[in-house]
Amino acid sequence: MNGPNQAMARGAAFSVAVLVVFLAAWQWGPGLLGIPTFIVPPLSTVANEFVRMLSRNALMFHTGVTAAEVIAGFILGSLLGAFFGYMLGMSPTAEFALSPYILALQIAPKVAFAPLFIMWMGFTVYPKILVAILIVFFPVMVNVLTAIRTVDPDLINLARAFKATRAQIFWKIEFPASLPPLFAGLRIGSTLAVVGVVVGELVGGNMGLGYLLAFGEGQANTPMVFVTILMLTLVGGVAYLGVILIETRVLHYLPKRALAGF
Amino acid sequence: MSDLIRLEYRNVTMRFVEQSGKSLTAVQQVSLKVTDGEVVSLIGPSGCGKSTLLNIGSGLYAPSEGEAIVDGERVEGPNAHVAFMLQKDLLLPWRTIAENVQFGVEIQGIPLPERQKRAKTLLDNLNLGEFANHYPHQLSGGMRQRVALARTLAVDPTVLLLDEPFSAVDAQTRIVLQRELAQTLRRAGKTALLITHDLLEAVTLSDRVLVMSRRPGRIIDELMIDLPRRDDPIARRQDPKVNQYVARLMDRLDIGHTPIEQPGAVA
Lengths: 262, 267
Known about the structure:
The complex is a heterodimer.
Chain A: H1 3-33, H2 43-56, H3 59-90, H4 92-107, H5 114-121, H6 126-149, H7 153-161, H8 166-203, H9 209-218, H10 222-250
Helix pairs in contact in A: 2-10, 3-4, 3-6, 3-8, 3-9, 3-10, 5-6, 6-8, 7-8, 8-9, 8-10, 9-10
Chain B: E1 5-17, E2 23-35, E3 39-43, H1 50-57, E4 65-70, E5 73-74, E6 82-85, H2 97-101, H3 103-107, H4 112-125, H5 141-154, E7 159-163, H6 171-188, E8 191-195, H7 199-205, E9 208-212, E10 219-224, H8 233-238, H9 241-252
Parallel strand pairs in B: 3-8, 3-9, 6-7, 7-8
Antiparallel strand pairs in B: 1-2, 1-4, 4-5, 9-10
Helix pairs in contact in B: 4-5, 5-6, 7-9
């Protein structure tokens, strides 16, 4: 029974091959195609810039600031989203009353609030966290709300027939049933949190990877922009991986499945 | 079987208001009694209100008129005397099999050691002991339905309401499950009201079969099943009288006039 393992090994080998080809194309492709290095700097230039930025631009400090903002925004946004998801899910009246406003807020591009928040709170970390909260809030809330809405009514009736209280129905059925969609929302939220924070940092302030992006752009330092994008991807990747690690522990009862989208 | 009445419907009428605002009568003036230890089947065309009766008995719906009485008490809401089982197993995927069996008793606040003991006994009786720590997705449909039966029995109800419990499993599994149910009901001395579409199932599992009409559902016939061995539906299937009962039920349901599969054909 090593069929699946063989398939996985083949997949991994192919994955590594793609990476090697990509890195090689990055290193030598621009030169071969005659693309100037200030448009697409080759891999080695970007690597050198990474080392330079570590000492000259406090790259790790800025990465740390962004990561902290991402984590704070993600956790607060998730908690708020889950809380409102459960509240609205259990109260059809509240959902009916609030749904037009929630929809309006959901349609509004959240990153457009960044300048407003900076005007309110100044060049601190708070407006960045607030944008992240706002942007994480919706996928989490919508997923939880939908999950609570779509719990099999026969399951609720089963619990009711056993004389379950409202609290028991929530903790024994609705809450556990909502966990898989909640984690799907958290996965989306973990990557969106990075977007929210970066936009906040781009708009104003002198800290974080978003600031380095703007700084590199101002100096026409393309390698610096590349390094910053890579670091942002790393921050988002670690956040996403963290969610997946928790998810596989919490949802251990689900049939083994390929970690979709990972 | 005694004369003690476990479950009774007195002149139960149920009306629903449709979305269009029209009132729809699902069940009209239904009266029936099920005595202690008796197994009664309820058959009838789709949408005749069989499941509505079951929901009224389990206290999930209040009837528009009339009343349901269980163990001498008027049903005012969900109560510990009644437990129901549906076509869907309704197992919770995040609970192990043993934890699923304990679901009802857990809600009722029975202490953990007692819960675990009951779950173990029931699972052992249904030959599911070795699956106690598995999760539902690891079991076949027939096994899951047996777990649902164990969960229903765990709360030790006096009356079981069964709504097409085996209609979602394959034919062979169904025969095995029918025998397990029959033996379990006999062993535990439980009273049961069984809703089914399967005429053969109704005849082989029951002491009595009630036939309902099209909507609005009324009881139009009652058939005493005078066969030995209610705890062995497989043996009952061999009995030539079964075909006569099935033929009569088909006639009452008005389904004998179109060519259909001969339900009495058994190996």
